[in-house]
Amino acid sequence: MTSQPVLVSVVIPCYNQADYLRETVQSVLKSTYDPIELIIVNDGSTDHSLQIAKELASQFPEITVLNQKNAGVAVARNHGIQQANGQFILPLDGDDLISNRYIEKAVEVLQSNSSVKVVYAKAVKFDSSGTQAWNLKAFSRYALAKDNMIYVAALFRKKDWEACGGFSEDMTMGREDWEFWIKMLKNEGEVVQLPFVGFFYRLTPNSKRKRTGTSQKKKERIAYLNRKHIDFFNRELSGPLRIQRTWSKPYNKLLKILRLLIK
Questions:
Q1: Dihedral of the CA atoms 45, 46, 51, 52 (nearest 10)?
Q2: Dihedral over alpha carbons 220, 163, 70, 88 (to 10 degrees)
Q3: Could you tell me if 233 and 145 are in contact, meaning their C-beta atoms sit under 8 angstroms apart?
Q4: In 3-state terms, what secondary structure has residue 241?
């Protein structure tokens, strides 16, 4: 007797992505995995995103639409995940795409190994001019302390989202997915990258990544991460995360040596 397949909840926060939302949803509906529920969270869009979301929900019974005042992507993701019925969660932004076998293969890994907390795949970036490879670094906790190599559209268990407190809603300076993975993975849990392209990240002229890529936002982000996870950085980098992130550990070690010499 075979057990019932596990429900996967795909949570799609959407803010003014009317031009792309239908294509994003269709990429999920083409998945080889079943059962799936799609939860579209309209985050106070000022275009016709909500109308498109409702039209899609009227066509496909697996789609639920939530509507909220604009509160940011972290709030929208948390709202959708709170309402999700699935044991496994896949956050997917309203302009990105997944391959048809991504969810199926990720679920196989999560079900076969309880020590694995996060599963993602190889990825590409794309726009109207074509695609380009996204060279994601290999995961390690040391590497995660310096940079994020896991895009937000990875699969994980809802119970692990609950255990780490979800996405931090006060992190408004960008890269909130990086901080989320630090919270979930800093002490334990394996990460698996599937050996095929499963995720397609859309490059847009006014993406949040570009808006939060300024030097000021970077300083705010690093200060925030150090306040919340100094124990993690002390362990992995021998001190705080620095503006020149790749030099954090050697710089911290050098400072310790200089302090010893000064004493």
A1: -70
A2: 120
A3: yes
A4: coil
